[in-house]
Design goal:
The structure holds 2 protein chains of 2 kinds. Chain A is an all-alpha fold. Chain A has a two-stranded antiparallel sheet. In chain A, α2 packs across α12, α3 runs parallel beside α7 and α3 packs across α11. In chain B, α2 packs across α10. Chain B is an all-alpha fold. The chains are: A mainly alpha, B mainly alpha.
C-alpha cells in the first residue's frame, strides 16, 4: 500500500470531501447521543429545529456566527501563510478592550463612532499579534506557543480590568465595565432579536478578504509564502514583510470579532464575552479549507451546532458539551478528508 | 528579605517538587514525540483526558494504579490518532494536534457531565498518600522534599532517568533520535520510520495523560472542567527550554515550579498590593520569556514537522 499524489485537484472533489467529512463527524457523534439513551435522529432533529426552526432560532444562529466569521477569517488568512496564529482568543479581547477604552466617551460625531472603534480595535489586534510574529521572524521563537500563552495573559488582564479599574460602579457589583456610548451600539437587523449589523460587516469582510487573497499581489505573496517560503524568497518576495502583513490582517480580523461582539451584543466588557470564539475560529477556517467565502458557510454551520446543541440538551438528557465534541471531531474529519483530495492510496 | 523567609521552609520545596510533577510527565512526553520528529500539540487535551479519565476510573471504584494505567491507555489512544494523521498520512502536525486538544478537552468535559450530571460540588476520591520510605524519608530536608512525595512523583523522576538512558545509550534510542533528524537514513537502515514515530508518539502521549492524571489522583482529589489550564502549552515551551534533553527538562520543570511556588507565597504575603491576576499571569509570561531566551540557538530536531513519505524527497 502506498500513498500517491493526485495529478489534478478539483473544486468539486474538495467540496465533496468536506461534506463527507462533516457527515462522518455527525455519525461519530451520534454514538454519544446513543450513549445518552436517546435516538440520534431525534437528537439531530432537535438540533436543526433549535438552530433554524423559528425566526428567533435563526437569528440566534446568525448572531453566533458573526464573531466566528471574523475569527475564522483571522485563522484562514494566517494559516494560508503558515503563520500559526492560535491567539485569536487573546486578539478578540484586545479588540473588545479597545472598544471600551475608546468607546465609553468618544467626543466624535455619532456616525463616526462605529467605524472609529472597528479601526482602532483592528489596529490594536494587529499590533498585538505583531509581538509573537516579530519574535518568530527575527528571533526564531515558535509562534504557536507564544500566541497560545498570550491568550491566558490577555484573559487575566481583562479579568483584572473588570474586577479592578474598569469595574462599573453602577453594575450592582457584577464584574463588568461601563457600557459604550449609545452611538456605538450596532443597529439591530431584525426586530425583537439580537441579530446586529456585525453579521453584515462579517460577510463584507469575507468578500474583501477573498478579493485581497485572490486578486492582489500581497494576497498572492501570502499564499506563495505559505506554500513554499524558500521558493518565494528565491523569487525575490519579501518573506518576512509578507508574514508581518499577514499578522496585521489576521490579528486585526480577530480583534474585529471582539469589537463586533461587544458593540453588537453586550455593550460592555466581561470575562465571558467569548466562549472560545478564537479557538472555534480555527475549526471554522479548517472546515472552509481556508477559503474566505467558505468561512461564512462554515461559521454558519458551526454556529448551528452550538445553538442547536443547547436546544438538544434541553430536549434530551445530554450535556451541551456535545457541541464542542462535534466541532472537534469535524475538524479532525475534515483534515483527513482533505488528504484524499491531494493524495490517493494505491495498493 | 523577610519576604523570602519561606525559602528556608521545607514546605516550600515540597510544594515545588509536587507542582513540577505534572510538568515533568508532560514535558518528557512532548520531548519524546519531538525527538522522533512529531510535534504533539494535542498535549493540552491529552492531559485533560488523562486528568478526567484517571479520576473517573477511581471514582467508579477502580484502584489508584488502575486509574494511572487507564489514563496511560487514553494517552496511547490519542497518540494512535495523532500518528495515523501525522505519521501515516503525513498531515499537518499543527492542525491534528490542535484538533486532538479540542477533542480531549471537550470529550472529558462531556463525559464528566454525562456520568455526573448533578454534581454541583465536585465529588472527591481518596488520592495517593505521600510515601513513607524507611530510611530515605527520614533524611533531613532531601528526604522530605523528594521521598515524602507520592509515588507518581518518584515515577516521573524514574522516567526521566529511563528516557535519558534509552535515548542516548541504546541503539533503540539512537533510532528514535535519527528518525527525528534524518528519516531517510533510518529507512536506509531497514528500520520502519512509521513504526518508530508511532511508538514515540504513543509513549509520549501516555506520559502526558499520566501527567494529567497526577492532578486529580495525587495533587488534588477532585476533577473540575478546565483543570489543566494551559499546563500542556507550558510543557511545549519547556521542551524548547530543555534543548530536547531529559535532564535539562527535569531541571526546567523544577525551576519553573519554583517560580510558580514563589509567586504563590509572595502573593500570600504581599496581599492586595499587587493585583492577583498578575501573579496568575506570571507562569505564562515566564514560559514566553524562557522561549525567547532559548530559541535563538534552539537546535530543533531537523525533521520536526516534516512528514515522511516513502519514495518522496
Amino acid at each position: 500500500m502506498r500513498i500517491e499524489p493526485r495529478q489534478a485537484q478539483s473544486v468539486a472533489r474538495t467540496v465533496l470531501a468536506l461534506v463527507l467529512a462533516v457527515a462522518a463527524a455527525l455519525g461519530i457523534c451520534s454514538l454519544l447521543i446513543l450513549w445518552s439513551g436517546a435516538s440520534p435522529v431525534q437528537g439531530w432533529i432537535l438540533m436543526v429545529k433549535g438552530a433554524l426552526g423559528s425566526k428567533f432560532a435563526l437569528s440566534e444562529t446568525l448572531t453566533r456566527a458573526t464573531p466566528l466569521i471574523f475569527t475564522g477569517l483571522a485563522a484562514a488568512v494566517a494559516f494560508r501563510a503558515r503563520l500559526w496564529n492560535i491567539g485569536g482568543e487573546g486578539q478578540f479581547y484586545i479588540g473588545a478592550c479597545m472598544a471600551i477604552l475608546l468607546g465609553t466617551d468618544t467626543g466624535l460625531p455619532p456616525w463616526a463612532v462605529i467605524p472609529y472603534l472597528f479601526l482602532a480595535g483592528a489596529l490594536a489586534g494587529g499590533l498585538f499579534l505583531l509581538i509573537p510574529t516579530l519574535l518568530k521572524t527575527h528571533m526564531n521563537v515558535d509562534e504557536v506557543v507564544t500566541t497560545l500563552l498570550l491568550n491566558f495573559v490577555v484573559l487575566l488582564f481583562v479579568n483584572w480590568l473588570v474586577f479592578g479599574p474598569w469595574k462599573d460602579p453602577m453594575a450592582m457589583g457584577w464584574p463588568q465595565s461601563a457600557p459604550v456610548v449609545d452611538a456605538a451600539a450596532l443597529p439591530i437587523l431584525m426586530a425583537k432579536t439580537r441579530l446586529h449589523l456585525g453579521f453584515v460587516l462579517g460577510v463584507g469582510a469575507a468578500v474583501l478578504i477573498w478579493l485581497f487573497m485572490d486578486r492582489t499581489v500581497w494576497g498572492f505573496e501570502i499564499r506563495a509564502v505559505g506554500a513554499n517560503p524558500k521558493a518565494s524568497r528565491f523569487a525575490g518576495m519579501p518573506v518576512n514583510a509578507t508574514i508581518i502583513r499577514t499578522a496585521l490582517v489576521s490579528g486585526g480580523l480577530a480583534a474585529m470579532a471582539g469589537v463586533s461582539e461587544l458593540l453588537g451584543v453586550k455593550g460592555y466588557l466581561t470575562t465571558d464575552l467569548s466562549p472560545g470564539f478564537g479557538y472555534t475560529g480555527i475549526v471554522v477556517a479548517m472546515l472552509a479549507a481556508l477559503h474566505p467565502l467558505g468561512v461564512v458557510v462554515s461559521a454558519l454551520f458551526v454556529a448551528m451546532i452550538y445553538i442547536g446543541a443547547d436546544a438538544m440538551s434541553r430536549g434530551i438528557n445530554i450535556s451541551n458539551y456535545i457541541a464542542d465534541v462535534t466541532t472537534a471531531v469535524s475538524l479532525l474529519a475534515v483534515l483527513a478528508a482533505l488528504f484524499f483530495t491531494k493524495y490517493r492510496i494505491k495498493r | 528579605m523577610a519576604l523570602l523567609q519561606f525559602l528556608l521552609e521545607t514546605g516550600f520545596w515540597v510544594a515545588m517538587v509536587r507542582m513540577a510533577t505534572p510538568l515533568i510527565f508532560g514535558t518528557l512526553g512532548e520531548l519524546i514525540c519531538e525527538r522522533a520528529g512529531v510535534l504533539n500539540l494535542g498535549i493540552e487535551g491529552i492531559m485533560a483526558a488523562g486528568c478526567m479519565g484517571g479520576w473517573m476510573w477511581v471514582y467508579l471504584g477502580g484502584t489508584l494504579w488502575g486509574g494511572v494505567a487507564f489514563a496511560a491507555g487514553i494517552g496511547v489512544a490519542f497518540g494512535l490518532i495523532h500518528s495515523l494523521f501525522t505519521v501515516f498520512l503525513g498531515l499537518s502536525q499543527h492542525v491534528s494536534g490542535l484538533g486532538l486538544t479540542m477533542l480531549g478537552s471537550s470529550l472529558s468535559a462531556f463525559v464528566f457531565r454525562m456520568l455526573l450530571p448533578k454534581a454541583t460540588t465536585p465529588p472527591k476520591i481518596v488520592p495517593f498518600a505521600p510515601l513513607e520510605l524507611p530510611g530515605l524519608s527520614q533524611i533531613p530536608f532531601i528526604g522530605e522534599v523528594f521521598f515524602s512525595q507520592t509515588a507518581l512523583t518518584l515515577l516521573a523522576v524514574a522516567l526521566v532517568v529511563t528516557v535519558a538512558y534509552v535515548l542516548f545509550k541504546t541503539p533503540l534510542g539512537l533510532a528514535f533520535r535519527m528518525v527525528g533528524e534524518n528519516p531517510m537514513a533510518v529507512e536506509a537502515q531497514g528500520l520502519s520510520v512509521f513504526g518508530l514515530r508511532t511508538a514515540a508518539v504513543c509513549a509520549g502521549s501516555a506520559m502526558m495523560a499520566v501527567g494529567g492524571a497526577f492532578l486529580t489522583l495525587s495533587a488534588f482529589d477532585a476533577y473540575y472542567i478546565g483543570m489543566v489550564n494551559g499546563r500542556g502549552w507550558i510543557c511545549i515551551a519547556l521542551v524548547v527550554f530543555s534543548s530536547w534533553k531529559p535532564y535539562k527538562a527535569l531541571l526546567g520543570c523544577l525551576l519553573f515550579a519554583a517560580f510558580d511556588a514563589i509567586q504563590m507565597r509572595v502573593q500570600q504575603q504581599a496581599g492586595m498590593a499587587i493585583p492577583y491576576q498578575l501573579y496568575l499571569a506570571l507562569p505564562y509570561i515566564f514560559s514566553i520569556l524562557a522561549l525567547i531566551i532559548m530559541s535563538r540557538k534552539a537546535a530543533y530536531p531537523k525533521a520536526l514537522l516534516i512528514p515522511f513519505r516513502k519514495g518522496e524527497r
